[in-house]
Amino acid sequence: MRLRPYFGRCDYEHISKWIKDERTHRLWCGDLLPYPVSQESMEGLLERDAREWDGHGFIATEDDGTPIGFFCYSVNAADNSGFLKFVVLDPDLRGKGNGTRMIGLALKYAFAVTGVDSVGINVFDVNQGARRCYEKAGFVLRGVTEAAYRYGDEEWGRCHMAVQKAQAADLNGRPEYLYHGSQYRFDVVVPHAASGECERESQRAIYAAETLEEVIPFALPIRWYPDSPEGRREFTCSDGVTQLQYGSLDPDGVGYVYKLRSDGFEKIDGWQWISRQETVPEEVIEIRVRDYLDRVTFSEEARKISELLYGDGKGRSDVLER
Predict the structure, then answer these.
(1) Which of 76, 95, 181, 282 is close enough to 219 for a disulfide, judged by CB 3.0 to 4.6 Å?
(2) What's the rounded Cα separation, in Å, for the pair 238 and 240?
(3) Could you tell me where the DSSP H helices lie in the chain?
(4) Same domain (yes/no): 7, 154
(5) For residue 193, what pLDDT is reported?
(6) Which SS3 state, helix, strand or coil, does residue 188 take?
(7) Based on the domain organization, do 130 and 203 belong to the same domain?
(8) Shortest CA distance to 105 belongs to which of 89, 124, 122?
(9) Is 146 found in the same domain as 47?
(10) In 10 A of CB 239, how many CB atoms?
C-alpha cells in the first residue's frame, strides 16, 4: 500500500462509488457535503479545508496504483498536532486490515514528515467498525460529545480520539504477523496473567514476538515437578538457548506456536508485543521437542528429574538424592 496526493479529476469517481448510501455518507462527513456528493461540492470542501485548516487530501493505493482509500490531513501549528478527517475505504476491501494499514501510513507521514506530537480524529459512536480500526492503529478515546448529530430517528455521539507519537512509534516497522508460543493447544488465544521481572512483563495479555524462533522456548512443554499444586518449574532464555533449572521436559512431547495478525498488538520493548484482546490464530504450528533438544541445557537438578521421568532411571525414587 502507498500514499499519494489526491487528484480531483482522477480520484473523485472512486470516492463517489465508495459512498453507496446516504447513511454511509453522513457517517463519513455529516452535513459538510450534500448527498449525493458531486465533484464540484467535493472540490469546494477541499478548497475550504485547505484555506481554513491547511488541509490536504491523500489517496491510498495498491502497489499497482489502484485507489483503495482516501483521507484528509491537516496540521495545527499552535499546539503542533495533526488531524485526520473524511476517512473512507473501498467497502469491498474492508475487514481485511486495509483500513488499519492506511491509517498506519497516515500516522507515519504525520509523525515522520510533519513532525507533530499527536494526531486526532473524530468518529461517530455508531460507526463501530471505523472506531475499532482506529484503536488498532493506536488511537485512544479522549472524550465523547453525546447527541452531537441526528440522522433520522438516530442520535449519534461524536468520539474524540488521539494518538501520541510515542504510542504510534511501532507502526513504522509493524510486521503483518506475530508469533505466540504455548505448550497448550487452543482454537482462540486469550490474554493471561504473565510472570515477568518487571511491570511490563507481568501484564494480563497475549505476549508475542516477530519471529517464530523467539517464542520456541515458551512453546516447549516444560512441566512443573512434581506435576501438582506444590510443584515448580524454572527456566530462562538467552540467545536462542533455553536453560532449564527445574521442571520436566518430555523429549517426545509437542508444543504449539500461534501465528497471529499484528493488528491490536503494541510493542513494549525490543522484542515483545502484547495484546489485551483475544484473537483467532491464522495458523497453529506444532513443534516436536526432539527437534529442539540441541537448544536446551539442563541444570543438575533438571537433568536428574529428566532421568527419573524419561531416562534409564524411570521409576527410581532415589535418583534425585544421588
Answers:
(1) 181
(2) 5
(3) 8-18, 22-29, 39-53, 98-112, 128-136, 212-219, 300-310
(4) yes
(5) 86
(6) coil
(7) no
(8) 89
(9) yes
(10) 5
Instruction: Give the DSSP H/E element, type plus range, for residue 261.
Output: strand 254-261
> How far is it, in rounded angstroms, from Cα 147 to Cα 165?
30
Kindly state whether residues 21 and 163 are assigned to the same domain: yes
Cβ atoms of 81 and 119 within 8 Å: the answer is yes
> What's the domain range around 305?
177-321
Q: What is the DSSP letter of 289?
A: G
Residues 292 and 314 in one domain: yes
pLDDT, tens only, 140-154: 899 999 999 999 999
More confident: 170 or 98 = 98
Q: Domain ends where: 106, 141, 173?
A: 173
pLDDT in tens, 67-77: 999 999 999 99
In the chain, the percentage of residues whose pLDDT exceeds 90 is: 66
Specify whether the CB–CB gap between 163 and 118 falls below 8 A: yes
Q: For position 313, what pLDDT does the model report? A: 40
3-class DSSP assignment, residue 250: coil
147 class by beta-carbon count within 10 Å (0-12 exposed, 13-18 middle, 19+ buried): exposed
Same domain, 91 and 156: yes
> How many structural domains comprise the chain?
2
At 209-267, the pLDDT tens digits run 988 988 999 999 999 999 888 899 999 988 778 999 999 999 999 999 999 998 888 88
